[in-house]
């Protein structure tokens, strides 16, 4: 096991009817003026917006609204948020939404102290400070609610890149699984597959790290079980709650801190959704990950056999990959580039886009050529 | 799943040659004068003491030594520590040792701000503040290095009781698994069984909390695997590291925060070691837990069947309990009161001692009578 530091200071408030404490939580931390960041109108339909606004007002917190965060959030909108924070002397950010909203909140929080936000994504500027971020999670999947990472798309340059810094851990996160009952099914699925994919980014590289591997298997099996239950009954509260808690644990350092992440499948997927921003991240991962597994299988065969046996109850990796794709497909997720309506001739462009940050992966480092081969497999 | 808050702010620094950073870690936090708390001479034999002292001196940290913490640490020694802190204007505590040293450090930290430390254990005083505690863990097991709990023995009244408060989370903890290679085998075993027991305190009550239960099974199986490996080769670093990481996760809120703990077996064991302070906590738990499981089996049969199948690969609970005792015994752990040299006629006194804090347990609340029946089973 490699040396590591595990230090996750986010306060997670989890359960039914917890959203109403947000005002008190922010107030206790000493902040009086905040940016309220959210996406489209879903939080106005499901009552979350009203609960949040009432709680903020009850606690005398002044807020400036910045709505319109899109899935695969974009640089221009984050820059507008930074301007709003500066112009209004705001002290903190409250993100209400899924991973996209939280990622943009972190980007704004970091950008507040930078000359040029995108420089941090280009690794040209270091993130040393950030506005405090609070979150109310409405879609489980990205894990952004309890980690220090953010992904943003530079829509001018078609780059979907990431940042990470200790100061970007949310101060507090609220997850009320009940509000996720109203999600469209495909969003629940995309979130679950995103969470599975986060765990898998650490799984294959960690042959001797028994804690990480065995906990990973437990979390993946739990997510599969919960999605199966929710497909039958979207209002199954224990399934919603366990899916949400597992998705948070999937990328909060628990399975990742003691091992090295691959992040190659994610990089390839970012190549897809940078060019096709209408494709949800989880949907892209559903397509890319089985192909990545198949392509890299020789790099650590015993671990891949373990994956087949312990996650899919299969006797071979081929059987496991068939089971994985069959399961994803049964949930209505795409399992090929064709399912995503991406023509084969676009593969080169996607691989080129995905490789612009350089070689990725430790188990099997991938250049543009290998990425293209994986995309061929995914076609 | 019940509502919960998960907020564990301890910074965990894990791996080989990490002890030497302690001075810098304390210094970065702004503390200049500390209490250096430890037990007997083992840290002087294995070089940990020298590494710590050098690191403190290199960082200009003044320290006052308080050695002689005993297994099952006692109130009088903690009170001496409080006096040392007050007399020398100390700002923080560094605990170097196993759970006993860390628990006493937390007790001193809380007692510094109380009129009478034991009042907190009696639930007569609230712990609102504490000196910051840093820890260097030398024996994995209690989990105290990353949680807000402490157990102390009032040797005058023969009470082994506990406290817990958010301010008692260690600020930072260092775990170098390599230094545990020099532990006597029975200490490694006691620590492992203590960690398994912590997980089990949450396991049987959590029927529908899939995340907690499945992660619990992964951790228990990992601890068993690591102990088996260490019995063959005490210098197996990955096994030491995975055992240590699993033991920390066993009681840091990961499996416990989303469910209700029983803590009945622990309470009974505290009744034993309050009267027999020479009996290690892990050894007492090895005796009590199988009996508690057997006694409470009707309270949640499906969960007990799951335990048999997923942890012990057994078809029935009887088979699983036999496997559990056989495994514990193969490690050299005691599995009966007889193995602990406790005469049968002491059972009443132990049960009486254990029940002085009142009824314990949620799945099956236990009074003195039921505790005595469990101890009979354990005889």
Question: What is the CATH architecture assignment of the largest domain in chain A?
Answer: Up-down Bundle
Low-confidence stretches of chain A: none
Strand content of chain A: 5-15%
CATH superfamily of the largest domain in chain A: Dehydroquinate synthase-like - alpha domain
CATH-assigned fold name of the largest domain in chain A? Dehydroquinate synthase-like, alpha domain
Distance between the ends of chain A: 36 Å
Q: Assign a percent range to the helix content of chain A.
A: 40-55%
**Overall number of strands of chain A:** 9
Report the major sheet of chain A: 6 strands, parallel
Total of domains of chain A: 2
Structural class of chain A: alpha/beta
Order of helices and strands of chain A: EEHEHHEHEHHEEEEHHHHHHHHH
Spatially, the strands of the biggest sheet of chain A line up as 2-9-6-5-3-4
Instruction: State the CATH class of the largest domain in chain A.
Output: Mainly Alpha
Q: Please tally the helical runs of chain A, counting DSSP H or I stretches of 4 or more residues.
A: 15
Rg over alpha carbons of chain A:
20 Å
Shape of chain A: globular
Largest protein interface?
Answer: A-B, 40 and 40 residues
Oligomer: homodimer
What is the mean pLDDT of chain A?
A: 96
């Amino acid at each position: 096991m490699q040396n590591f530091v595990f230090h996750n200071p986010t306060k997670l408030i989890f359960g039914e009817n917890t959203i109403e404490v947000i005002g008190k939580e922010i107030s206790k931390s000493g902040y009086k003026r905040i940016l309220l960041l959210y996406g489209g109108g879903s939080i106005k339909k499901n009552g979350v917006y009203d609960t949040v606004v009432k709680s903020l007002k009850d606690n005398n917190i002044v807020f400036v609204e910045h709505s319109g965060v899109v899935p695969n959030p974009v640089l221009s909108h984050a820059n507008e948020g930074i301007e709003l924070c500066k112009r209004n002397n705001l002290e903190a950010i409250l993100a209400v939404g899924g991973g996209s909203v939280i990622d943009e909140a972190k980007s704004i929080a970091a950008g507040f102290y930078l000359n040029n936000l995108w420089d941090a994504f280009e690794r040209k500027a270091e993130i040393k400070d950030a506005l405090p971020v609070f979150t109310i999670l409405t879609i489980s999947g990205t894990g952004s609610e309890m980690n220090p990472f953010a992904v943003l798309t530079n829509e001018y340059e078609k780059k979907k890149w990431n940042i990470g810094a200790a100061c970007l851990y949310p101060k507090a996160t609220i997850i009320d699984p009940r509000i996720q009952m109203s999600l469209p099914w495909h969003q629940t699925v995309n979130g679950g597959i995103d969470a599975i994919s986060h765990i898998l980014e650490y799984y294959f590289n960690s042959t001797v790290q028994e804690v990480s591997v065995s906990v990973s298997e437990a979390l993946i099996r739990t997510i599969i079980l919960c999605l199966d239950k929710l497909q039958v009954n979207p209002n199954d509260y224990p399934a919603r709650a366990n899916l949400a808690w597992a998705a948070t644990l999937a990328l909060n350092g628990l399975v990742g801190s003691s091992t090295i992440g691959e992040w190659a499948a994610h990089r390839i997927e970012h190549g897809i959704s940078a060019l096709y921003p209408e494709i949800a991240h989880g949907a892209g991962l559903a397509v890319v990950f089985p192909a990545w597994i198949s392509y890299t299988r020789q790099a650590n065969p015993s671990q891949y056999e373990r994956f087949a046996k312990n996650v899919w109850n299969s006797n071979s990796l081929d059987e496991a990959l068939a089971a994985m794709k069959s399961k994803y497909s049964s949930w209505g997720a795409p399992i090929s580039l064709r399912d995503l309506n991406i023509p084969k001739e676009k593969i080169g462009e996607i691989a080129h886009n995905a490789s612009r940050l350089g070689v990725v992966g430790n188990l099997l480092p991938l250049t543009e050529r290998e990425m293209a081969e994986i995309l061929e497999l995914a076609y």
